[in-house]
Specification:
Layout (H helix, E strand, L loop, with lengths): L6 E4 L8 H8 L6 E2 L3 E2 H5 L3 H5 L10 E6 L3 H12 L6 E6 L4 H4 L11 H14 L4 E7 L7 H9 L5 E5 L14 H10 L4 E4 L5 H11 L3 E4 L1 H5 L3 H6 L10 H16 L2 H5 L1 H8 L5 H9 L4 H13 L2
Parallel strand pairs: 1-9, 2-4, 3-4, 4-5, 5-6, 6-7, 7-8, 8-9
Bound molecules: flavin mononucleotide.
């Protein structure tokens, strides 16, 4: 049973929030983790890589799987596949992805242009899913903000909660475009719990957004890549960094990557090392070294040396 009160969610970030990363973040008290966006089409057509994206760590509970799609027959089959898998508590429908290859086919943020189809898709998932919760993750609109229309649409669905990212598709990720007032407006018009998302990076911004929007929780994405402990900071309402050695954390994350992906994990971990080393002495040289490495034990030694020097 989920308690929708100051709930903390890790945002889905394609290319980042895989099993190894989510299990690291879980240590810091995040309540709910979400898979990377999974194409309903790829799921139905039995793509091997896609099935790997459904795996979760045992400590991830509740766990949400986010799917993208808008074709009723494909969504139906995708939900039927998810119904056969245990350990999934929430099916989330992506209604925010701005990428042209997604939105141009009417999926992701494309659904914000067809609210009738959005409502139908949401209700289709809710009616077929055997999981306890169904949710939507929305932006504020496609080209323009339509908070009231979105609230009406949400009231026409049977879903259990909604996550709202406070920007339109056209706003991309522009910092100055974030709009918590429109999130507050949606919250005031709907009965289901709402989780607010966008530009939350520490305890202060989390509590500010909760107050401004009246939301039942917050979802954090990019700030967690550099600071997975941000959820611990919010839970404890502090700016302090928890007493974990960054070296241990990075090594553990690295080991999980190699365990999950094999040697490929060394290359996939480069982006995480960029985030972890940001602002540290000799980070530039460290990145150059790491970018040329593929051997797990050599890379591990470099990580140990670099983060051990701190
Ligand atoms: C690299 C990257 C990948 C993302 N992938 C997804 C995704 O798969 N599904 C989704 O709903 N949103 C995705 N988003 C959007 C985030 O979930 C989130 O809504 C957005 O980053 C704003 O939150 P933040 O300011 O806390 O990062 C992605 C964003 C980024 C930067």
């Amino acid at each position: 049973m989920i308690h929708f009160n100051n709930l903390l969610m890790l945002a889905p970030l394609a290319g980042y929030t895989d099993l190894p990363f989510r299990s690291m973040v879980k240590k810091f008290g995040v309540d709910i983790t979400v898979s990377e966006m999974i194409s309903s089409h790829a799921l139905v057509f039995n793509n091997k890589k896609t099935f790997k994206m459904l795996e979760k760590a045992p400590e991830e509970s509740p766990f949400s799987v986010q799917i993208a799609g808008s074709k009723p027959e494909i969504l139906k089959q995708a939900v039927e596949i998810l119904n056969t898998r245990s350990g999934i508590d929430i099916i989330d429908l992506n209604c925010g992805c701005p990428a042209p290859k997604v939105a141009n086919h009417g999926n992701g943020s494309g659904l914000l242009k067809d609210l009738k189809l959005l409502v139908q898709s949401a209700n289709l998932i809710k009616s077929l899913s055997t999981k306890p919760y169904t949710s939507l993750k929305l932006r504020l609109g496609f080209d323009k903000k339509i908070p009231l229309e979105l609230a009406h649409a949400l009231n026409d669905t049977n879903i259990d909660f909604v996550v709202v990212h406070g920007r339109t598709r056209a706003d991309g990720y522009k910092k100055e475009k974030i709009d918590y007032d429109s999130i507050a407006l949606i919250k005031s018009k709907i009965a289901i719990p709402l989780i607010a998302n966008g530009e939350i990076s520490d305890a202060k911004s989390a509590y500010d957004v909760l107050r401004l929007t009246g939301a039942n929780g917050v979802m954090i994405g990019r700030a967690a890549i550099k600071s997975p402990w941000v959820f611990w900071q919010i839970k404890n309402n502090t700016n302090q960094i928890p007493q974990v050695l960054l070296q241990n954390l990075v090594l553990e994350h690295f080991d999980k990557m190699v365990e999950f992906y094999g040697e490929r994990g060394v290359i996939m971990f480069r982006k995480n090392l960029h985030a972890y080393s940001k602002g540290r002495h000799n980070a530039h040289e460290f990145r150059n070294t790491i970018n040329s490495m593929t051997n797990p034990s050599q890379a591990r030694q470099e990580i140990e040396d670099f983060f051990g020097d701190a």
